């Protein structure tokens, strides 16, 4: 295990440095070199405003803190059994995704965006299972939050890539509007999943992107539906925090949402309903929040 631990630590550090190099190049490349601009490579009905790319700064900072913290003894189990190979694989594939995306090959880049989201989703789920048994504030700040930001952003890239690959950005019509509407619904579904896990960092990333879509898009349907989603997600987030503090008095819709989540994830415990089984329902005091 010691050899695997140090191997993972070194690969995590190398993959992060590669990610940082790729990010700096794509965000700060000269304006005259349009193929190297992530923002302008594949414009579509869901392209957010350019300021959304500033999300790379907290993601890079969070992954940098994790890259340093992973060398401490307290992070050993989380590196091997939690994060494992998910971060290395997702960050490595991100470089290939960036090249194809920046050179206007959205179909090929989609083939990389899918495994990127899949790998980091698996890693985050493993980390969540591990952290739920032994919650720690330092692990939450230096491991859980960086992975949550990267997972949410990978989900955003997947949605935007799907829209760019399956639509005609030069002559958008009814099909493009329906596709954009359905993909925006995916944002709402992702936010709901984060809310069930009390992962408000992921919710903030999705809200940041949706604000960029509202500001940048001229389609009234896209703008107003996205604005409605923002209002709904913010309202549900406030209610979710209140309901977590009042676990004994959960409203029916929150209880149904938590039970559905546990049915879909039988090995995990809902943060709101920690002792809920598929059969009879038992409500106890909430556990320590590790994803807030």
Which secondary structure elements does this structure contain, and how are they paired or packed?
Blueprint: H1 2-28, H2 56-69, H3 76-83, H4 86-102, H5 106-133, H6 137-166, H7 174-196, H8 200-216, H9 220-245, H10 252-264
Brief overview:
The chain is 70% helix and 0% strand.
Descriptive report:
The longest helix is centred in the middle third of the chain and has 30 residues, at 137-166. With 292 residues, the protein is mostly helical. Helix 1 (2-28) packs antiparallel against helix 2 (56-69), helix 3 crosses helix 5 and helix 6 runs parallel beside helix 8. 38% of the residues are buried. The protein is globular, with a radius of gyration of 20 Å. The chain has helices at residues 2-28, 56-69, 76-83, 86-102, 106-133, 137-166, 174-196, 200-216, 220-245, 252-264. Mean pLDDT is 79; it is low at 268-292. The chain crosses the membrane at residues 7-28, 48-66, 78-101, 107-129, 141-162, 174-191, 198-216, 222-242. Residues 268-292 are annotated as: Disordered. This is ATP synthase F0 subunit 6.
Terminal CA distance reads: 31 Å
Quantity of strands, as a count:
0
Runs in which pLDDT lies below 50 for 5 or more consecutive residues are 268-292
Could you spell the SSE succession in H and E letters? Answer: HHHHHHHHHH
Please state roughly what percent of the residues sit in beta strands, choosing from under 5%, 5-15%, 15-25%, 25-35%, 35-45% or over 45%: under 5%
Protein name: ATP synthase F0 subunit 6
Transmembrane segments: 7-28, 48-66, 78-101, 107-129, 141-162, 174-191, 198-216, 222-242
Region (Disordered): 268-292
Biased composition (Polar residues): 277-292
């Amino acid at each position: 295990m010691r050899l695997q631990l140090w191997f993972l630590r070194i690969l995590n550090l190398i993959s992060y440095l590669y990610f940082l190099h790729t990010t700096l190049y794509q965000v700060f490349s000269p304006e005259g070199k349009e193929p190297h601009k992530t923002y302008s490579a594949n414009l579509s009905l869901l392209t957010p405003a350019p300021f959304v790319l500033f999300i790379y700064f907290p993601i890079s900072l969070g992954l940098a803190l994790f890259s340093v913290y992973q060398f401490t003894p307290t992070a050993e189990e989380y590196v091997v059994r939690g994060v494992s190979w998910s971060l290395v694989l997702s960050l490595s594939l991100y470089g290939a995704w960036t090249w194809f995306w920046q050179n206007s090959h959205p179909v090929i880049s989609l083939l990389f965006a899918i495994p990127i989201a899949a790998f980091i989703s698996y890693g985050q789920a493993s980390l969540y299972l591990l952290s739920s048994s032994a919650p720690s504030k330092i692990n939450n700040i230096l491991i859980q939050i960086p992975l949550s930001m990267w997972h949410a952003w990978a989900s955003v890239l997947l949605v935007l890539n799907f829209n760019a690959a399956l639509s005609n950005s030069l002559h958008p019509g009814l099909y493009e509007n329906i596709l954009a509407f359905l993909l925006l619904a995916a944002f709402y579904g992702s936010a709901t999943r984060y809310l069930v896990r009390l992962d408000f960092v992921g919710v903030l990333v999705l809200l940041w992107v949706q604000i960029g879509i509202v500001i940048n898009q001229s389609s009234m349907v896209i703008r107003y539906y996205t604005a409605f989603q923002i209002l709904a997600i913010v309202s549900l987030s406030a209610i979710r925090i209140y309901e977590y503090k009042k676990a004994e008095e959960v409203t029916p819709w929150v209880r149904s949402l938590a039970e559905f989540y546990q049915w879909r994830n039988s090995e995990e415990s809902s943060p709101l309903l920690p002792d809920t089984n598929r059969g009879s329902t038992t409500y106890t005091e909430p556990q320590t929040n590790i994803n807030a």
